[in-house]
Amino acid sequence: MLMSTHEARLADLREELKRQGLHGFVVPICDEHMSEYIGGYAQRLEWMTGFGGSAGTAVVLADRAAIFTDGRYTIQVRDQVDGRLYEYVGTAKQSVAEWLGQNAPEGARIGYDAWLHTRDWVEQASARLTRSGAELVAVTTNPIDAVWHDQPSRPVASMNPHPIEYAGRESAEKRADIARWLSEHGMDAAVITALDSVAWVFNVRGSDITHTPVTLSYAVIHRDGTADLYVAPEKVSDPLREHLGNQVALHDYDTFEAGLDGLAGKTVAVDPERAVAAIFSRLDSAGARIIARRDPSVLPRATKNATEISGQRAAQARDGAAVSQFLHWLSIAAPAGGETELSAAAKLLTFREATGLLVDTSFDTISGASSNGAICHYRVSEETNLPIVMDSLYLVDSGGQYLDGTTDITRTIAIGTPTAEMKRRFTQVLKGHIALATIRFPHGTTGGQLDVLARQYLWADGVDYAHGTGHGVGSFLSVHEGPQRIAAFGGQGEPLRPGMICSNEPGYYKDGEFGIRIENLVLVEELDLPGAEQPMLGFETLTFAPIDRNVIEVALLSAHERDWLDRYHTKVLEVVGPQLQGEALAWLQSACAPIG
Q1: Under 8 Å CB-to-CB from 8, ≥6 apart: which residues?
Q2: Rounded to 5 degrees, what are φ and ψ at 383?
Q3: One domain, residues 251 and 341
Q4: pTM of full prediction above 0.85
Q5: How far is CA 549 from its chain centroid?
Q6: Shared-domain flag, residues 314 and 266
Q7: Fewer C-beta neighbours within 10 Å, C or N terminus of the chain?
Q8: Residues of the domain holding 103
């Protein structure tokens, strides 16, 4: 019997592990920058296992292997990864370190790539293995790279200036803020490793990562406001040098590790969540004094300035018109038959491209018909492509990257007649969406404290969804941006601050049948409440496209909720209507009619 592709790759890896004197290896989805979305060269887990999600880890031992995913990927991992080769482990039940501690043989040497894990993970996994009589070992050569013979090269796209008309603040001003922060805390330098942080601090963008306009790069910012920027020489142009100015020294990306030796004797801030273990090790070896602090650009990057907010509103209005045109097209094309998940996703892209301003999509469009809609982070392919059929639900989660903003919107549409169950669940999701959209809350409130608002109506029926309710969104940067999030798991999280942008996206997923999600982006804003005894915050909804009235059980909505929906659709007409004409405009007017 011939081995499958992934079975052969697993066998090759095990042979390489033997050659390196290892008894196992840990394979995360990650790159050297701890990025969520990574370049093709770093897609080691997908190459090994076939898993195409954005979060997961595999462990390969000599006689068994396991793949670890969270609740978002419970269905997807079983569809994509051969259960004969890998056992499926939910991270909510068991961590990678725990599994290793239970399953690694006594005396085993378990390899890991120090450029793909945080220092905290290494310490935890090492401690757990030590208790079992095994050892965690940093490899000098990643064994997957040794057997992945057609591994893509690192991308060579250029790093480009991001104009002040979109950035809103000069890079020198941002670096000066970081320099003051360093001085106030008695530190000499900060190592910046997150790609979106480098892009934001230096007002640069790139295309090294699909859907995320960043460039593979590192930076060290010093207390005097100068900086060292590590980027491949072929990515650097004269306009970029002029943009960066003489306070920024350029270095080859491949010299970054050696360049850390120059921080010997210095007090250096390093983000333990965003910097890999190898960076800590090199700084330790160099004799630097490491202070574990969050990247000082994270919070100001998340708190959008007036220019970024204005740009986001413009991007949302443009994107909302494209989505509305798509929904109009779908209302005609889907009942006529012949459309599929792939054809619908392609059509949606044409409407965004027709704006003339689309740089990229902000992630792979989730185009899920019928049962595929129940896969939270579904990625359609030729093998999984389903037809869009009558009397079903179609879920489409998509977004665009524009110079002035990043968008992310989900709509669930009834094709034909929805069932009573579909309408009840859709309405419960909508009620949760409205509860979050209209909440008022004091300064200091975290997203974790608000998460229950979106789930309460589903909980009343004993159902839920296995993902967070909201994530931060960048400004022509990552569609998933921290530190803010609206989720109960993983701690209460970061206090919400004016200028932060989050998604509002409760959902419901019935395995094998249908999925529902309603997502808009919202802006945290100061509220002026007469009689308030403390400063209060709320959300301004930024996303505008119709919510399908055909899936709403109107009797389940309160007067307050019906009023919100009518006011929202009035705003959709105000924002999107002037961009449409003819049949599309007539359809929009009908889709935004009062709910009654």
Answers
A1: none
A2: -75, -30
A3: no
A4: yes
A5: 29
A6: no
A7: N
A8: 5-147
